[in-house]
Amino acid sequence: MTVRKNIKNPPKISLEHQPLVNGAGLAPGLQHLVASREESNMETLNRKYIVIALAAIASASLAGCGDQAYQETPVDTATAASPVTPSSSTTTTETTTETETTTLPALTFSYEVTGASGVDPVDSFGNILTDNILKVKVVAGTAGQIRLSDGTYSNWSAAYQCVQYKISALGQTVTTQVLAVDGGNSYICPGAPSEQTIDFSSRLTSGHGAVTVTVQAYRYDSCLNYGYNFGGCAMHTVYYTHTVTGTLDIQTNGTGS
């Protein structure tokens, strides 16, 4: 016997009084869909709350600093000084004291001296003021008149073409090289210069005061003491009655210290 169910009027299921919490009461598939949608709604709501909170904090901060937000003042790069970037390395600054090189016009002195045992063997030039430069240029001169033992002059001169002098200053004596008179070219001193500069600057010390420079006759090539009144004999000591001449140009640079 077959029993047929009446499906024309199926019983109605009422959901009016059944709350849907997380899809409760629904099929499992519908429950999952409802739960996912509710979680998405909650995340959206939380983001809105966060944005509102941040806006409130920012508004409060601006209110504490005044009505206007901080704006950086523009810098005129055409006139602004470039920043100095400190170096990580240590730089040592050295101070160099330069030697004064500005010189004064040379002091010029002419001299005439006899041989070592003559009546006028040394000529001195004192009261020379300078700071730290003392250079003496010696220029060879021609023979002067013979000086006799009593100091008078004869009508003769002992001619020479080559000559040497001794120059002294600040406790130092320097013998010049052989110098040619008037740029001559004697076979005794071929190619010799007619002048020589001697630098005494290194002898100057603090508080040196005024300086004295002296000159002495040393050697020449005169042949008068052999009976011939001309140069050209071998270099030998200046005879005590014979005179040699020359010029000193003394270079200085101050008033002395």
Tell me about the largest β-sheet.
6 strands, antiparallel
Helices, by number, come to 1
Record field, number of beta strands: 12
Strand portion: 25-35%
The assigned structural class equals: alpha+beta
Low-confidence stretches: 1-8, 13-23, 64-100
Sketch the topology as an H/E string, one letter per element.
HEEEEEEEEEEEE
CATH class type of the largest domain: Mainly Beta
Write down the Rg. Answer: 57 Å
Termini gap: 152 Å
Mean pLDDT: 76
Q: Which CATH architecture of the largest domain is right?
A: Sandwich
What is the subunit organization of this protein? single chain
Give the CA-based shape.
rod-shaped
Structure commentary:
The chain has 257 residues and is an alpha+beta fold. It has 2 domains: 43 residues; 145 residues, Sandwich (Jelly Rolls), CATH 2.60.120. It has 1 helix and 12 strands. Strands 2, 6, 7, 8, 10 and 11 form a 6-stranded antiparallel β-sheet that branches. A 4-stranded antiparallel β-sheet has the order 1-12-3-9, with no helix packed on it. Strands 4-5 form a two-stranded antiparallel sheet. β10 and β11 form a beta hairpin. The longest helix is centred in the N-terminal third of the chain and has 37 residues. The radius of gyration is 57 Å and the shape is rod-shaped. It starts with 27 loop residues before the first helix and ends in a 6-residue tail after the last strand.
